[in-house]
Amino acid sequence: MKKQLTIAASWIAAAALFAGCAGNPSMENATEKLKEDRQITYSNLVDAETQKEVTDLLKAHGVTQEQTDTLISWADDFNTRVTSGKLSEGFHTMPENTGADYQGLIIQNNEAEDGWIYPEANCRLTSYLLMKNLIHTNGKSPDNDTFLMFDMEAIDTYEPFYLTKEERGNFTSLFGWVPVDASDKLEEHIQRIQNAWKEREIKVEGEGISLITVYLHSPLENVRFVGHTGVLIETEDGLMFVEKYGPQFPFQASKFQNREQLKQYLLGRADLYGDETELEPIIMENDQLLT
C-alpha cells in the first residue's frame, strides 16, 4: 500500500512539474493583458490619425476647433524641423524606467530673414492655448516674476503666441509664481498655492478636463513656480495627458490608466530636481493636490 501511494505521489508531482513547464495559457494571457494595461503609451502628434484622435477628444471636452487647429499647426511646425532623433508616430509604449527619451533630438531653429530666432512653444503656452476659454481669473498677478520672462517675450513679440490684454492677464495670474516666504514645510506651500488661486479668483470650467501644474521650489526667491504643466482629459478607458515636453522637445499625448500613474510619470522627470535646499515638487490638478 505504501509503495502504491509513493508511485501515485510521484505521478502527481510529475504532472504538476509538466503543467508548470507548459504553463497555464489562460493565466499567462491574463498576466500579459494586465502588463499591457499598466503600460503608458505616447505619441508626438506626427500622423493624421493620432492628431484626429487627440483633437476629437479635446473638442469633446470644450476645446474649440480653432484652438485644436492651432495646436496641430504648432506641432507640425516643430515636427518638420526635427533633424536628428526619432518621434513617435502613432501611440507606442513608453519605456518604464526612462520615459520618453528625447536626448538625441535636435531641431532646426525657426529664423527670420534678419537672423532673429523665433521663440518655441513651451508647456505653459501650450496648456493655455488649450484651456484659455475654460479659465477665468481676476487678472491679478505677482510682480517681477522672472520665471515667466521668456513666456512674456514670446507672447509680446511672436504673432502665433499673441494674447489679448484679458488673456495676457489670465495667463500671468494662472502661471505666476506663488510667494512662500521662508517656509520649509510642504503642507504650507500647498496651502499658499491654493490661497493664491483663491486670491486670483482662478476658475477652471469643464467636465472631464483639468489643468495639471507642477510647482517647483526656488529657495533663492522664496517662491513656488510652474515648472511644467499639461492638460488632462478623462477617457472611456483611462486618461490622456497633452503637453509640450519642453521648448526644445516635442508635443506629446500620453495615455495613463489612473492619476497615480500620471503622478509617478511626472515625478520621474529628472529636470524637476535641483539641490537639497529645494522642497519636493508639488503636483496640482486645478486647485487640488493630485492624488
Structure description:
The protein is an alpha+beta fold and 291 residues long. Helices cover 40% and strands 21% of the residues. It contains 9 helices and 13 strands. Strands 1, 3, 6, 8, 9, 10, 11, 12 and 13 form a 9-stranded antiparallel β-sheet that branches. A two-stranded antiparallel ribbon has the order 2-4. Strands 5-7 form a two-stranded antiparallel sheet. A hairpin with a 2-residue loop joins strand 10 and strand 11. Helix 3 packs antiparallel against helix 4. The longest helix is centred in the first third of the chain and has 21 residues. It is globular. The N terminus is likely disordered.
Which helices and strands appear, and what pairs or packs with what?
Blueprint: H1 2-22, H2 25-38, E1 41-43, H3 48-59, H4 65-80, E2 82-84, E3 92-93, E4 106-107, H5 123-131, E5 135-136, H6 149-157, H7 165-175, E6 178-179, H8 186-199, E7 203-204, E8 209-218, E9 223-235, E10 238-246, E11 249-256, H9 259-267, E12 282-285, E13 288-289
Antiparallel strand pairs: 1-3, 1-11, 2-4, 5-7, 6-9, 8-9, 8-12, 9-10, 10-11, 12-13
